[in-house]
Write a structure and sequence with these properties.
The complex is a heterotrimer of chains A (235), B (258) and C (482).
Chain A lengths: L1 E14 L2 E14 L3 E5 L6 H8 L7 E6 L2 E2 L5 H11 E4 L11 H10 L8 H17 L15 H13 L5 E5 L7 H18 L2 E6 L2 H6 L2 E6 L2 E7 L3
Parallel strand pairs in A: 3-8, 3-9, 6-7, 7-8
Antiparallel strand pairs in A: 1-2, 1-4, 4-5, 9-10
Helix pairs in contact in A: 3-4, 3-5, 4-5, 5-6
Chain B lengths: L1 H14 L14 H14 L7 E10 L7 E10 L4 E8 L7 E5 L2 E6 L4 E5 L20 H4 E11 L2 E10 L8 E7 L5 E7 L5 E13 L2 E11 L6 E10 L10 H6 L3
Chain C lengths: L1 H12 L1 H40 L3 E8 L5 E3 L5 H10 L3 E16 L2 E10 L5 H6 L2 E4 L9 E5 H7 L6 E7 L5 E12 L9 E5 H7 L9 E6 L5 H15 L1 E4 L10 E5 L2 E5 L21 H14 L17 E6 H44 L1 H9 L4 H34 L23 H28 L2 H6 L3
Parallel strand pairs in C: 4-9, 6-8, 11-14
Antiparallel strand pairs in C: 1-2, 1-10, 1-14, 3-4, 3-7, 3-10, 5-8, 6-9, 7-8, 11-12, 12-13
Helix pairs in contact in C: 1-11, 2-9, 2-11, 2-12, 3-7, 8-9, 9-12, 11-12
The chains are: A alpha/beta (235), B mainly beta (258), C alpha+beta (482).
Bound molecules: adenosine-5'-triphosphate and magnesium ion.
Chain lengths: 235, 258, 482
Amino acid sequence: MAIVTLDNVKKNYMLGTTQVPAVRGVSFEIEKGDFISIAGPSGSGKSTILNMIGCMDTPSEGTVIVNGKDISQLNDYQTTMLRHETIGFIFQSFNLIPVLNVYENIEFPLLLGKAGTKSSEIKKQNKEWIEYLIAEVGLERWIHHKSNELSGGQRQRVAIARALVTKPTIVLADEPTANLDSKTGEEVIELMKKINHEMDTTFIFSTHDATVVGIADHVIRLKDGLITENIRKGA
Amino acid sequence: MMNTFKFARRLLLATAFFTITSASAFAITNEELQEKLSLSDYRATFSGSDFQATIKMVSTDPTFTEPKVREYTQFRRDGNDAMVMVTLLPEVDKGQGKLRIDENMWSYDPESRNFTHTTLKENIEGTDVKNNDMKKPTIATDYTVVGFKEGKLGAFDVYIIDLKAVNEEVPYAFQKAYMRKDNFVLLMIQSYSLTDRLLRTTYYPTYSKIDDKYIATTTIYKDELVAGKQTTVTMFNISLAPIPDTVFSKAYIEKINK
Amino acid sequence: MIVRQIALRNVLRQKRRSLLLIAAIAFGAFAITLLTGITGGIEGNTRGNLTNLYGGHLYIRGVERLETGTLIQVIRDETPLVAAIDEAGIEVESVLKRTSIRGSLIMGSFESSATIMGVDWKEEALLKERLPLVSGSFDSGMAENSIIIPEKLALKLKAEVGDEILARMTTVTNQNNVVNFIVAGIAKDTSDYADAYSYADLDYTAKALNLQPGEFQSLNILLKDADSTDAAAAILQETMAKTLTVSVRPTTTDPTTSTTVATGGETVTSPVPATGKTGGMGGMGGMGGMGGGMSSLRSSLGTVAGVSGVPGATTDAAVGKPIYSISTINDMMKTVDNLLSILDSIGKAAFGILLVITMVGIGNTFRMMLLERTKEIGTMRALGMQRKEVLWVFLYEAIFLGLAGSLAGILLAFVIGFASQLLPMSGINSLFLLRGHISFVIDYVMVAIVLASLIALSVIAAFSPSRRASLLDPAAALRSTH
Ligand SMILES: Nc1ncnc2c1ncn2[C@@H]1O[C@H](COP(=O)(O)OP(=O)(O)OP(=O)(O)O)[C@@H](O)[C@H]1O
Ligand SMILES: [Mg+2]
């Protein structure tokens, strides 16, 4: 069963009085464990589609089903819950919370909601898990540093760990390598791929970088809000 | 015992000013002297006419570096027991007014534009003169003659009259009045406290005679408790012409300050 | 948890800006706490000073009409009063007989105005305790005309122990009088309010006032419990009215405007103002006032408290039949309380204005923070933070600012307030001081109110931008450049 289903999804934005069609009728499915790249030139609708999958936005027409739920039917509280429980986010400009250090940034999603009611046993498990993730992204030495003391690549590693901390089914990454040099960008994608293998987490990332697209198992190409190509490698 | 002591002390004080003449038989009685005091009061009371004068008060005090001078215009209508005094000097108090009707007295402060009720027994600011001294004299009604002697005060032959207050509300419990034998004019009054101590001596060295009235144009109030403390009051520009009724009102005092 | 943690870290993030807000809030808290602390001290000191001065909380005064119609202040026989006090069941610490002379003391060519309290030395243990002498003593050679004079007055008169001084005064009937005193002691200048008074024998002062030995002017009752003053006054009033003529205690703020007389249960209102001279507290005159307002305070205090002033007497008084009146420390305090409440209102108004300005500042700062942190809000929302939690991140920040500001202000007020107690104060009426020093009295209720209101107002000021932060569309917020 598909973890994400888009069915004839359209999204229009209002720019003043004129309607700007960002997505003009897109349908596809993403399976659990996919490592999928949404590629396309600037303005083709990549971010719009990722936002809808990430329950940050709703389609103007058509349905987006995430983890079995039609996101158009959910209120703000429910979509927030769905994001919190099911989805991890990695952003182009990393978006670490500046007042928190590396450990705290990664821990942050775990403390939302009914964090205060968690037992000490769970807290202990969480701590081990966070430390495992920090080791996994190779930032043991930077654990108490604030984000402004880290390089771009290091920040994106923190963001990856943070996206994984709630053990989400889907991780969304909107151009995760755009602000990184090509070598670091590749390393970050490789790290994501490694975690994809190890944890069977679905990764959906957008990019217009051809080398990055090459690493993906599944590529959806967009142009002007429409799918031009949908290839599953080795499938 | 106590009385003889009092007597001796008064005697002693008196000798400073006069010498005792012969102890010849007195030709006048206490009752007659009481009459003479009434005459004295009558001569300084202007029931038939109004009275107006400029009054100057010069005070000395051991704590003053120089004498303090105050000047007032006084309007009196003794028939109604009314009086108005308006300050001319010192400059800072100029325009302050006092209005007296019977036993009530108000003073007006032009700065705050307020009247405050004061009592007749209070001294006029910084002087040894009481508000009460500025009204028509009532020595004959306030005091009873209890005895007298004959003596001399300076060049004058005088009766030295012992007076006792008719009640406890008269300003001084006892007084001694020195009255000229020839014309029954008062020359000096010594005022004593309830405890029989000399508090104040009042001298009347000069008089002015208008018709049957005798006006003490100079009065010296000498404080007998604090050496060197005294106030000399002189009156001039005296007039007995009628004063408009409107003068004896709060409104008048307010008006002169506009 | 994480919400409070982030809020706290956000406070520390822009230290300069936060400090500015904290300082603004602190200033308001400081000013109002200091003001209430000092006015509280003034209230307490005035109350204490007056209680000490008059040796009690309740004062019974008697007025009698003479044949001539004049009213004089005298109590000729205390037996019915003492009986009434007993019957009323008031718990008293002491009952003191007092007279008061307002006049002047003279030695040689030096004269100085003075208020002489006539006291029964056998009964005045407390007074003796409060009057440390620099020379002389209370016990050795206390003659009937012994007088204790304050140090300042002794210097002015150049008088020493053993010197004879004259006292000029008027009797109860306003007759001029003079008596002599022998200086038995000179009271140390402790800057205590009562320092300005001279103290002499009750009977001797009575004689000087032309009263008989054993007669006096007021009976001053020190209660065991000062808080029960009003209740005790009411009971005493009621008890005395059964057998004596008692003028009803006025309930208006100005006790001189109207006087009511109760005669054995029957009550007659008489709109006669007090005819007494405003005496009794004359000693305050020489002690340096606080400007114009003080003179009216002085005279109205005198009218209420003046042991020598004839209280709310009435024209209906029958000759030879005493009319009693009861006044209390609270009556005397009314003038002071009024003055303080004006001061308090001005302070609170200024505090209010300050708060409005501070609130505008907080509001603006939070709007700025909203703009600066839009992207961050988007990120937190994407990571699963609910709207309510975003709201609380901001509100907690406001709470922390309010808490830090008000605590800092209150603490600073305490420091300044307690430090100011150490400085001797001149130029302030010593009635308000405790032995020449300001008292700073913490009003914990007020402190709690200041703390709570400042926090609440910070939250209110921050609420609208905080709410807007919580309602941001997460996707749009993420697109923001900040
Ligand atoms: N909030 C918005 N309001 C108006 N138009 C928008 C909005 N967001 C996106 N668009 C428009 O929708 C179209 C698709 O935008 P989108 O951001 O999805 O493209 P993209 O493929 O992510 O491009 P890029 O590679 O530049 O990020 C563009 O034409 C863009 O201008
Ligand atoms: Mg994009």
